[in-house]
Each structure stands twice: as structure tokens, then as C-alpha cells.
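User: Predict the full complex structure for these chains.
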Amino acid sequence: MLRDRIEKELMKAVRILPPDCEALIRKAYEREENVYARKVLSHIIENIRIAGEGRLPLCQDCGMFYCYVTLAENCRIPLSVLENEINLGCAGAAQKAFYRRSVVDDPVYDRNNTGTNLPVIINWERGRGDETEIAFLLKGFGSENCSSVRMIRPTDGEDGVVSAVLDMVRAAGGKPCPPMFLGVGVGGTMDKAAILSKKALIRKADEHNKDERYMRLEERLLSEVNGLGIGAGGLGGNNTCLSVAIETYPTHIAGLPVALSVNCWVDRKAFISIRDEEVL
Amino acid sequence: MRLELPYGKNALENMRAGDEVIISGRMYVGRDQVHKRLVTCLDNPPFPFEGNAVYYMGPSPAPDGYVTGAAGPTTSARMDPYSPLLLEAGLRVMIGKGPRSAAVQEACIRFHGVYLYTYGGCGALYASCIKSSRIIAYRELGPEALLELEVEDFPSICLYDAHGGRLI
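Assistant: Here is the predicted structure of the two-chain assembly.
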């Protein structure tokens, strides 16, 4: 069953980092020279070990379930069935893997805990492939509180994008538990850019944008963000950010939306693929 | 240096920004909603501010056989609007992650408070330093309830000391 597979992957995701993310953290530790940042990174590596060996989550903020579904061109599973499987899989993982219940029903007035970590935030996209891909982020809010959108001028170009991202990261400072992972959404409307920034964040940390110009922009942003000197834990050094991913979309002649989704070093993700109604 | 909690007279005076501070003893845990409530009962708080420390944290549930779930710090900046009032009422030790506002830094100088940085995201590591955990108030807040912890060898770094020194 799809729900069982989702549950299993999310029980693992809350305790064990994707190998690409852990590798980036270890590499950062090896090259870091700032004495305080080295302490931060060595405690992070120790935390990864403790969570991996026991039953405790990596972080007490087990996040809000964020799901991005890319439907196969020929997907015959009704969306209502997929949605139900996703909800049940998430609820099961929260229960069995001791997730903190961090979701409240009404944002302003009641703020009563739903007790299940539901609802799941789900985005649907029609893909062109023959596999339906279901990707999850466990989106912590220390970092999400630092995510933001800027509507810059259409004539601002690459430098404008860089300056908007640097502004938002500077404002975040040490708050989102750096070294961070950044997803940047460029184009569309304000809300489309925000969703693109999450889609970018979900991409595997070692995958780059296929357009060479944006791939170079990802590298430029990574280097300039690391030049800010915020550093691991916000205590200085060269490891403010471990990866930058950009996703783009057509936009209006009058605008250039730039959205930034910030993730902490606990970059928890899970991926499940389905082909011809079979979970791969 | 080592810090035993509750701290005694002059215990904070030797601490300097940049010191690695290893904490043992009793600490209190409260975050957003607890702070919102504490500032309404400064004359009669659920635990004495003097001698004690507040850790900004909300744990995940404890698996069977564990004293607590993951128990790392949350972002201190969200407590910034409340902390100067608590410092004025006698609190001197705050433990969390991330930078603080200018108002909190000034209140630390004025009331000789210290702010200790704990390693963000390290929930499993901090859980392993906690020997006991119990709810002492506001149970209805669920993961945000006010807790009393006994900790041992709980690692931190002094970011702001009681003499106006700052690491960042």
C-alpha cells in the first residue's frame, strides 16, 4: 500500500538525513576554520549519530508535512485516493515515530493543536514522465520564519535576484539554524514563485538547474551567501549555506518575483515513485 | 567553565562571552506561549526567576524507555519582546539559539543577565543530557507546557555575558 510506504519513509526521514545532505555537513566540518563554527558542526555530527542509533528525531521540531506531487502523464490513480494515502501515511508516521505535534487548527484566534500534525500541505503538478513522484519535506519553522518573497523590477536582472536573496538571508542571520539549504523560486506570480522555491528546496542537494545560466547563478548565490560570514549556528565562518537550488517559470513584462525558502541544516526529505499503480 | 543550576551568588560573574559553558542541575523550559503568560504574572511566577534559568524549547514526545523526546533549542528572537520584562523581574540566565534584539542586549547589561547559545537542531543530543522532565504549569499548552528539567553536561556557549560582552 502507498500509505505504508509513505509512513515508512517518513519514520526514517525524521531521524536520518538524506546521504547527500549529511555529506555536505561533513565536508563543511572538514574545511571550517572558525573555532566556534567547528564546535557547532561537531555537535551537529554528534546529533546525527545519536538520532541515527536510537529512536529520537534529529530535531524536536519535526516540521509541517509539505508534499509536492508530480503526476505521471498517464496517472490513473484518482487524486482523492492519492490525497487520502498521503494523509494516512503522514498521520501514521507522526504517531509511530514520535513526531512533536506542531500544527494548530486556526492561525490567529484558536490555535488549538490538531493533535495529528495534519493537514498536509500538498502541491500538485502534471508531469510529462511515466512515474508519479511524491516528494516530502518536513518543514521546520525556525527556518520557515526566515522564508520570504520580494517583487523586484523586471529590469533588475541577475544582480537584482542576487541582491534580493542576500537581503533575505542577511535578515535571517543565525535564526534558521545555519548552515542552511536555500530554495529560490524566480518568475510566475508572487505565490507561484513561493511554490517554486519549495520545489527547488525539495530537489536533491547535488542536482543543479539544467539551464547552465541558472546553474551558474546557483553557484554565485552559494558563494555570495557564504561570503556574508553568518556561519554555522550564526557564530561566524564560511559555512552559512550548503546548497542553493533555483526553479523558474515564465512571468509578466512588469515583474520579477523572487521567493526564498530557507531550510535549516536538518534538511529532512523523502521521495516515493509510482509507475502503473505500483509503488517503486 | 561549568555552571551549576540553580546558580549561587557570583556564579555568573566569571562567565565571559565566548566561554564554553557546560550546564548541570535544574532548569525551566518555556517558549512563546509560556512567555506570553509569564509577563502577566511577574509578581507571582510559577517558578522563582532568581537563581534559575529559562531554556527556550518544546520537546517531541518521549518514546518508551526515554525520559524525553528530542529537546533542542528554539529560536530565541521570538522571545525578544518578553525577555526584558523577565530580566527586570529577576531572571538572569536565558538559553536558546540565534541572535537577540538590541533591547534584550541592553536589558542583559542593565540587569546583569547572560544569554547562552545552544546548538540549534541538535534535539537528540540535548535529549541525551536530560535526566528528568516534568510539567509544572500550563499543561494545556501541550508541547509548549512549562517544564522543569534536570540536566547533566548540557553544552552551551556564552553569547552575551553579564558585563556587556558579546560573542556576536
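Helices of chain B lie at 32-38, 83-88, 102-111, 123-127.
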